[in-house]
Amino acid sequence: AQSVAQPEDQVNVAEGNPLTVKCTYSVSGNPYLFWYVQYPNRGLQFLLKYITGDNLVKGSYGFEAEFNKSQTSFHLKKPSALVSDSALYFCAVSEGATNKLIFGTGTLLAVQP
Amino acid sequence: EAGVAQSPRYKIIEKRQSVAFWCNPISGHATLYWYQQILGQGPKLLIQFQNNGVVDDSQLPKDRFSAERLKGVDSTLKIQPAKLEDSAVYLCASSTSLAPSGELFFGEGSRLTVL
Question: What is the arithmetic mean of pLDDT over A49-58?
């Protein structure tokens, strides 16, 4: 069965510094991988996806993610963090060729000014 | 473009009572999803509709949960009778198709507290 793991409950970073939010996955076939962000009292918002092609995927708000097949990872990155990036970030994998997303437990990103 | 609308935003009930949540997806979106998000966990898919047909309801506790999308537009999720462990945020989402684009549009959720 497909699954994703987010090993860090919380990531703290100073504004202006680079950030990384980690995600590893387990799938039986080709992975379809996604990142979503959830601001307080708001619904989840799509950030970016990897389906095929270039291992470095660019998304909304300056975020990018790197797909690494050998390490089965899909880490979310941003070169320079903003206080407004503080939110809950979810990694997800699609089960098969449908939009049935399996989410990780989430990582709380806290960016300090 | 209007987003996914959900109501009510908050609901408090006692165990064994019933509750219903409503969702209106983005206009033209054929696929609709209900997710359950328990505090501290990631969202878990309960049921997925394509138009008014069920695509996947394998994780829906059918002894107490039911959902329908009769006209292929808005949807209701019902819990009867509720248990303490049903306390969660119920998220509705929609997308344009079943293809694995992964871009689901979520509503703000309905927070259920069961006492």
Answer: 90
**CA A72 to CA A54: how far, in whole Å?**
15
In this predicted structure, the answer to whether residue B102 has a pLDDT above a threshold of 90 is: no
Q: Which one, of B65, B107, B15, lies nearest residue A42 by Cα?
A: B107
Please provide the distance, in angstroms rounded to a whole number, between the alpha carbons at the two ends of chain A. 41
Prior bond of A18 cis (ω within 30°): no
CB-based contact A34 B102, cutoff 8 Å: yes
Contact B100 A92 (CB under 8 A): no
Task: For residue range B41-78, list pLDDT tens digits in order.
Answer: 999 999 999 988 999 999 999 999 999 998 889 999 99
Q: Which residues of B touch A (CB under 8 A)?
A: 3-4, 31, 33, 40-45, 48, 55-56, 91, 93, 95, 97-109
> CB distance B56–A98 less than 8 Å?
yes
Type of residue numbered B112: L
**Mutation test of the interface with chain B: which of A67, A99, A103, choosing the one with the most B Cβ atoms within 10 A?**
A99
Answer whether residue A77 shows pLDDT above 80: yes
- State residue B45 phi and psi, 5-degree precision: -70, 130
Question: How far is B97 from chain A, CA to nearest CA, in Å?
Answer: 8
Tell me the three state secondary structure of residue A85. Answer: helix
- Indicate the average pLDDT of chain A: 93
Six-digit token pair at A109? 């990103």
Across the interface, of A43, A92, A99, the residue whose CB is closest to B98 is A99
In Å, how far from its chain's centre is CA B77? 6
